[in-house]
Amino acid sequence: MTTGLPSQNEVIELLDGEFARAGYEIEDVLIDARRRPPRIAIIADGDKPLDLDTITSLSQTASRLLDGVQSIRGQYVLEVSSPGVERPLTSEKHFRRARGRKVQVALTDGSQLLGRVGETQDGTVMLVVRDDRGRDWTVRDVPLNEIAKAVVQVEFSPPTQRELELATSGAGTEAGT
Question: Start and end of every Ribosome maturation factor RimP C-terminal domain (predicted)?
Fold first, then answer.
Protein backbone atom coordinates (compact mmCIF):
# COMPACT_ATOMS: atom_id res chain seq x y z
CA MET A 1 0.00 0.00 0.00
CA THR A 2 1.37 3.40 -0.92
CA THR A 3 0.64 6.47 1.13
CA GLY A 4 1.08 8.96 -1.69
CA LEU A 5 3.73 10.66 0.47
CA PRO A 6 7.44 10.90 -0.28
CA SER A 7 10.02 9.04 1.80
CA GLN A 8 12.29 10.84 4.24
CA ASN A 9 15.19 10.51 1.77
CA GLU A 10 13.09 11.84 -1.12
CA VAL A 11 12.18 14.95 0.89
CA ILE A 12 15.81 15.55 1.86
CA GLU A 13 17.03 15.08 -1.73
CA LEU A 14 14.34 17.40 -3.07
CA LEU A 15 14.78 20.21 -0.52
CA ASP A 16 18.38 20.01 0.68
CA GLY A 17 19.84 22.30 -1.99
CA GLU A 18 17.25 25.05 -1.48
CA PHE A 19 17.63 24.96 2.29
CA ALA A 20 21.44 25.05 1.95
CA ARG A 21 21.23 28.10 -0.35
CA ALA A 22 19.23 29.83 2.38
CA GLY A 23 21.96 28.92 4.94
CA TYR A 24 20.20 26.00 6.65
CA GLU A 25 20.49 22.26 6.66
CA ILE A 26 17.80 19.68 7.11
CA GLU A 27 18.39 17.94 10.43
CA ASP A 28 15.46 15.56 10.18
CA VAL A 29 12.27 14.80 8.27
CA LEU A 30 9.32 13.18 10.04
CA ILE A 31 6.48 11.76 7.98
CA ASP A 32 3.29 10.72 9.74
CA ALA A 33 0.87 9.05 7.33
CA ARG A 34 -1.46 7.97 10.19
CA ARG A 35 -2.66 11.52 10.82
CA ARG A 36 -5.49 13.02 8.81
CA PRO A 37 -4.37 14.86 6.85
CA PRO A 38 -0.89 13.28 6.83
CA ARG A 39 1.99 15.41 8.12
CA ILE A 40 5.46 16.12 6.73
CA ALA A 41 7.64 17.84 9.34
CA ILE A 42 11.02 19.25 8.35
CA ILE A 43 13.47 20.14 11.12
CA ALA A 44 16.06 22.66 9.93
CA ASP A 45 19.00 24.33 11.63
CA GLY A 46 21.74 26.75 10.69
CA ASP A 47 24.37 29.08 12.03
CA LYS A 48 21.92 31.98 12.02
CA PRO A 49 18.64 31.83 13.97
CA LEU A 50 15.60 30.35 12.27
CA ASP A 51 13.13 33.21 12.68
CA LEU A 52 9.48 33.33 11.58
CA ASP A 53 10.22 35.10 8.29
CA THR A 54 12.79 32.45 7.39
CA ILE A 55 10.45 29.61 8.40
CA THR A 56 7.76 31.15 6.19
CA SER A 57 10.14 31.42 3.25
CA LEU A 58 11.46 27.86 3.69
CA SER A 59 7.89 26.56 4.06
CA GLN A 60 6.82 28.23 0.83
CA THR A 61 9.83 26.83 -1.01
CA ALA A 62 9.25 23.34 0.40
CA SER A 63 5.54 23.47 -0.44
CA ARG A 64 6.22 24.56 -4.01
CA LEU A 65 8.79 21.81 -4.56
CA LEU A 66 6.74 19.07 -2.88
CA ASP A 67 3.59 20.09 -4.78
CA GLY A 68 5.54 19.65 -8.01
CA VAL A 69 6.25 15.97 -7.33
CA GLN A 70 3.80 13.87 -9.34
CA SER A 71 3.90 10.85 -7.02
CA ILE A 72 2.63 12.86 -4.02
CA ARG A 73 -1.13 12.52 -3.95
CA GLY A 74 -3.71 14.13 -1.72
CA GLN A 75 -3.48 16.75 0.95
CA TYR A 76 -0.83 16.89 3.64
CA VAL A 77 0.23 19.29 6.37
CA LEU A 78 3.72 20.70 5.98
CA GLU A 79 5.64 21.96 9.01
CA VAL A 80 9.07 23.57 8.97
CA SER A 81 10.65 24.23 12.36
CA SER A 82 13.88 24.39 14.31
CA PRO A 83 15.02 21.46 16.45
CA GLY A 84 13.79 23.06 19.67
CA VAL A 85 15.39 23.11 23.07
CA GLU A 86 14.70 19.46 23.85
CA ARG A 87 17.25 18.26 21.28
CA PRO A 88 20.52 17.20 22.89
CA LEU A 89 23.65 18.93 21.60
CA THR A 90 25.65 16.11 20.07
CA SER A 91 28.09 17.67 17.61
CA GLU A 92 30.44 20.63 17.30
CA LYS A 93 27.98 22.39 14.98
CA HIS A 94 25.19 22.04 17.59
CA PHE A 95 27.36 23.76 20.20
CA ARG A 96 28.45 26.42 17.70
CA ARG A 97 24.81 27.17 16.91
CA ALA A 98 23.91 27.28 20.62
CA ARG A 99 26.49 29.98 21.41
CA GLY A 100 25.15 32.28 24.10
CA ARG A 101 22.56 29.75 25.29
CA LYS A 102 22.50 28.19 28.77
CA VAL A 103 23.14 24.43 28.82
CA GLN A 104 23.10 21.59 31.33
CA VAL A 105 26.11 19.36 30.67
CA ALA A 106 26.80 15.86 31.99
CA LEU A 107 30.47 14.95 31.70
CA THR A 108 31.80 11.45 31.12
CA ASP A 109 33.35 11.50 34.62
CA GLY A 110 29.84 11.81 36.10
CA SER A 111 30.06 15.50 37.04
CA GLN A 112 27.53 18.12 35.94
CA LEU A 113 27.98 21.67 34.70
CA LEU A 114 25.49 24.44 34.16
CA GLY A 115 26.93 27.07 31.88
CA ARG A 116 26.55 29.31 28.89
CA VAL A 117 27.99 28.16 25.55
CA GLY A 118 30.89 30.23 24.29
CA GLU A 119 33.14 29.66 21.31
CA THR A 120 33.39 26.13 19.93
CA GLN A 121 36.36 25.04 17.87
CA ASP A 122 38.83 22.20 17.40
CA GLY A 123 36.73 19.74 19.41
CA THR A 124 36.41 22.00 22.47
CA VAL A 125 33.57 24.16 23.75
CA MET A 126 34.12 27.09 26.08
CA LEU A 127 31.50 27.14 28.83
CA VAL A 128 30.91 30.22 30.97
CA VAL A 129 30.38 28.84 34.47
CA ARG A 130 30.42 30.14 38.05
CA ASP A 131 33.88 30.15 39.62
CA ASP A 132 34.71 27.93 42.60
CA ARG A 133 33.35 30.51 45.05
CA GLY A 134 30.19 31.06 42.99
CA ARG A 135 30.78 34.81 42.98
CA ASP A 136 32.02 35.49 39.46
CA TRP A 137 32.00 33.99 36.01
CA THR A 138 34.88 32.09 34.45
CA VAL A 139 35.38 30.28 31.17
CA ARG A 140 36.11 26.59 31.21
CA ASP A 141 37.35 24.72 28.13
CA VAL A 142 35.57 21.39 27.83
CA PRO A 143 36.60 18.83 25.21
CA LEU A 144 33.52 17.60 23.34
CA ASN A 145 34.63 13.98 23.81
CA GLU A 146 34.25 14.48 27.59
CA ILE A 147 30.59 15.49 27.26
CA ALA A 148 28.16 12.62 27.78
CA LYS A 149 25.03 14.76 27.33
CA ALA A 150 24.22 18.44 26.86
CA VAL A 151 20.78 20.06 26.63
CA VAL A 152 19.84 23.71 26.18
CA GLN A 153 17.95 25.11 29.17
CA VAL A 154 14.89 27.32 28.97
CA GLU A 155 15.64 30.70 30.54
CA PHE A 156 13.10 33.02 32.09
CA SER A 157 15.46 35.88 32.86
CA PRO A 158 18.28 37.44 30.85
CA PRO A 159 21.91 36.54 31.59
CA THR A 160 24.20 38.99 33.36
CA GLN A 161 26.19 41.31 31.12
CA ARG A 162 29.50 39.75 32.26
CA GLU A 163 28.29 36.21 31.56
CA LEU A 164 27.08 37.17 28.08
CA GLU A 165 30.29 39.06 27.28
CA LEU A 166 32.39 36.02 28.18
CA ALA A 167 30.20 33.73 26.07
CA THR A 168 30.27 35.93 23.00
CA SER A 169 33.81 37.37 23.14
CA GLY A 170 35.79 34.14 23.35
CA ALA A 171 38.19 35.82 25.81
CA GLY A 172 39.16 34.93 29.35
CA THR A 173 39.65 31.19 28.96
CA GLU A 174 40.78 28.95 31.74
CA ALA A 175 43.09 26.10 30.81
CA GLY A 176 41.87 22.54 31.05
CA THR A 177 38.74 21.03 32.51
Answer: 89-156
